[in-house]
C-alpha cells in the first residue's frame, strides 16, 4: 500500500485559501515568527485539507482509471484509428493493471483520514463526519474492485509500516459503524466556516446525513444475495435518521472549476475538450452495444450520453481488431456527461440512491410502492442528464419501451430486482461503472452478452469478477498481500457474490 508524504496534502493550500478566504484566517497565521508558506503539521488544518480531499473524491468518479470499466460494461469503446488494448479487451489482466486506481484511491483516502483526525483534534465533529462519509464511498469501491484491503491499520504509519489486510466483510461491517458515527457527528453544531469549507453540500448537514444513509443502504444492497443476510437493524437506522437521497439531492463537488489547464471539471477534462478546444480523449468513443440499446427503444437520453455524427449516433465495437469507425466517424461522449469545463463533479447522483431504494422496497426491506419508486428513479435519470422536457420523455419511455414498462417486471422479487437493476445499468452509463459491475456480479441482470469484448484473444466469455492486487503492494507490502493467497480475476469472488 502506498503512503502519502504529509507534504503532498498541502500542495494546493494556496488555492484552497482562495476558496475559504475571509472565513478561516486567524491573526496568528501571519505572525512574524511563522512562515505561512512552509509546510508544517501546525498549518495543515482540517479546514484547508477538506476542500482538496473532496475534489479528489470527485476526481475518482471521473478518472481515466475507471475507463476500463466503462468499456467492460458496454458504455465506451475505442475507435478504429487506435489499436485495441490487448490486456483490457482480452481480460488477460496482470498485477499492474489496477495499480494507478489503487494508489489514487488511497491517496484521496489519506487526505480524508488526515482531515478527520485534525478535525476531531479541534472538536470540529461536523467536518470530521463529512470526511468519514466520503471515505466510506471510496473504501466500499475498493472492496468491490479488489476484495480484502488494508483498512483498520491504513495510514497509521508510525505504528504499522506494512498494514494488514482486512476481510471485505469486516470492512463492510466497519463502514456501517463508521457511517453511524459520522451521522452522530453531523448532528453537532458546525464550525463558523463550515458552509464555506463544505464545497460538496454547502453546509447542509441534513444532506450529508442522507448521503451517509444512502451509502449504508448501498452496503446492504450489495450483500442482498448472501444466504441468511438480515438488513433489518441497519434499515431501521436509515429510516429513523431521515432516509436516503431523493430527486434533486445530488452529491457533487465544485471548488470553482474554470476552463484552464488543471482547473477544469475532471470528467470534462478527461473526456470533453482541452482548454483550447481539442478533443481530450481521442481514444474514447461510444460503445456500439450501448448506442444500439438506447436507439432501439428511442431513449431520449442517447443525445445526452453521446454526440451524434451528422444525424446519427455511431458506436465502436469493443475489442474489434479491425473495422471500427475512426474517431471522426464515431460518437464522442455527450453533453449530459461532459457538458462544460465548469460543471459540478459528481460524487453520487440522486437517481442512483433512488434505484437503491426501489430495490430495497421490492425486497420488502423498506416501505413504499415499488413501481412508484422505480419510475421516479428512471425519471430522475432523464432530469440529471439534462434531457429537454425530461418528465415527458421519461413518461414516454416508461410506457412504451418494453424493457421499462413496470408491468413487464414480473411478480417475483428476483425478477423485479433484476428489472430495476437493468434500468439502473442504463442510467449509470459513464457515471458509475463500478456500481454497474457490482450489480452484474450479484444479479447477472443484463439480458444478453453484447457488452462482452469481441477480441478473438479474450480468455473468457464473461467479465472478470475482480482486479488483481497491484504490483506496488507486492513490492511495498509483500507479506500482507501474499497472505491473501493466489488471486484469479475470474474465480476469486468478492465476498458478497453468489
Automatic annotation (TrEMBL):
SUPFAM superfamilies: TPR-like. InterPro entries: SusD-like_2 (IPR041662), TPR-like_helical_dom_sf (IPR011990). This is SusD/RagB family nutrient-binding outer membrane lipoprotein. It comes from Niastella caeni. PROSITE patterns: PROKAR_LIPOPROTEIN. Keywords: Lipoprotein. Pfam families: SusD-like_2.
